[in-house]
Each structure stands twice: as structure tokens, then as C-alpha cells.
Model the fold of this input.
Amino acid sequence: MTGKPIFRMDVPTVAFGAMIVFWSIIFVVVALPYLTFRPPQSADARPLTVQEERGRKLYAANGCYYCHSQYLRAQDWTGVGSFRTIGRVAQAGDYYYQQTPLLGTERTGPDLSQEGGVHTDEWHLAHFRNPRYTFPKSIMPEFSFYYNAGDEPGPEIYDLVAYVQSLGGRAADDRTARQRTLKQKLLTERAKGNQAIIHEWFPTTWRNVRNPMEPTQRSLLHGKTVFLTNCIGCHGLNGDGKGPASRWVGGVDGQPAPRNFTDITSHQLFSDGELYDAILFGVDGTAMPAWGDMLTVNDIWDVTNFLRTIPNGGLQREPTADMMVSAPDYKPIELTPLTTMLTPPPASPTPSGGELATPPAATATP
Done:
């Protein structure tokens, strides 16, 4: 049987077939989900305020999503402040109010989907000015172009802070409100001379716990390395709480200042256990962040040993055990009553508060 072929594999035919395949894939992958996928709103989802929306646009314009993701998967066991948000996997309904979710493509920096309330507003002011002030090993570029000649944050920075503090929705609002309420409580009590109020921030089980890590030369030198690598942005090269970040997180507008470790009374106020808890989980209401995701248990105990040498020159010369200062009510760890260590801590305060609308108001100096 002879005649013209019904189907010829020439260039126009192949091109036509390729276009059908291409647009079919686009329809199935892009258009069909857009037209049919309508996940319900999650319990935490809420619309952004006008200020937060401005911050979101700045976040996108500066390419923040190139390095930061905004979704936690089931296999992501950690994230920013994971002890506060552990188990909170991203849900489709979290993005209910977002026309274009800024999910990101990789994690050069940490995931920020639950960042809201993990750090204080003041911590963010220092972090945006220069990320090395709050985390010396950060490779994030500084946002100093949004600060004026006197290093005062411009309105763009407050918009960015408001947006970042909104990440996590209603759960973030609760965490942020708690940070601000505890800050105000701390400043109010310190203004009355009640420095011991800080003990309420720590479980009572830590009150009489002594450092189990012997203050050997290895421990002290390693602790000094940890301090110089991570802590000088706020606490300073001299340990006096006058690091470059203190311009924003301490002494200005009533923010609780970074701890001055050259002051012996600071060491007499805290037990080793309380220092450990403060480094591991951070101190809510202050700019002290949680280091538990970045430091090991041994790192924290070693730096706790080293901190005790700072009043006697541990930062200026090689630290030794005889330079350490201690709280007066210390007990050897082997004599610490087991019943005391097993006493359940009181419930943590769960206050409520507001959101960032204007620069932090001036309050009493701590």
C-alpha cells in the first residue's frame, strides 16, 4: 500500500509536540495547584500589619530569602531557638495570608519560620547593624545603610524588626509579648534595688548546683576560647558588658545591659547551675540568646569556669584556677542534696503584651 505518510517526524511536528508537553507540565505543576489547592488557615496564621508588610517587602528586596528559609520540615530537628519551638513543623495553612510565601531555597543562615519572639527587639537592632555583634562567626552582610550617621536605626530597621518578630504568627506574638513583659518586670525590680529578682528566671534545681567540670587548665583555656569566639559582641573584650552590641542592647532606652563579669557581685549572685541555664536557654526579657544549639554541654561548663576568672584578669592573661571567684553559698557537688536537685521548678511566668509599633520607650535604667 502506497501513499503519503500520516505522521512525519519533521521539525515542526517535534516542536509542536514539545510545546504540548511543556505547557501540560506547567499546567499540572503550577496552574492546577493554584486553582485547586486551598488549605485551611492554621491556628497560628494571621494577616500582617501595615508595618510588618513594609518589613516583608524590605526583607524580599534585600534578598534575605537567599540565605534564610521560612519552613521547617519533619526532619528538621532544630531551628532558631528550637527549645521554644521544637515540634512545630510548617503547615500549608501557615501561609494562608501570603500571596507569595518567601520560603527560600537554601539555609546558609538559620530557618526563620518561627523566629518571632525568640530574640528581643533590641537584639535585632544590634544584629541588623552588624551581625558579627551578636554572632561573631556570622557571614550575613550588615544593614548599616539603614542607620543614620549617629548609628540610630532608621524606620526601615523598625519595619524589618516588626516583620521578623511576626514570623510564627500568633505563637510568635505570644513569645514576643512574653519577652517584652519580662523585660519590663526585670527593669522595674532592678530599679527598686531587687537584683535577686533574676533568680525567678531559673529553675530552683539549679540554685545550688556546682560546675561538674573541674577547673583544669584545659577547661579554663577552652572556656576562654569559647568566650572570645562567641560572647565579646555584647560582653566586650574586657568582659565588662561594653561590647559593640551594647550600644543597642544595654544601657540605652532602659534595655537590660549585658552582664558585667568584671564585677565580683555578679558572680556572687549566680550559681554555676544558673549560669549554665542562662547560656543554654538564654535569659528571656534580655538580649541574652540561647546558645544550646551551637555549644556543647562541655563548652558551656568550660566557659562557666572561665567566667569566674574575669574579675581577676582572666581575659588579660592566662587564666588559672586560683583566679576564680565563687558565690558564697556554694556546696561541693558531692554534698548537694539530691532532694534539692529533684525539686520541681515553679511554673514559668506567662505574661502577655503588645507588638513593636515604635522605637522602644525609655524606662528605668537597670
Observations:
- The first helix runs from residue 11 to 36.
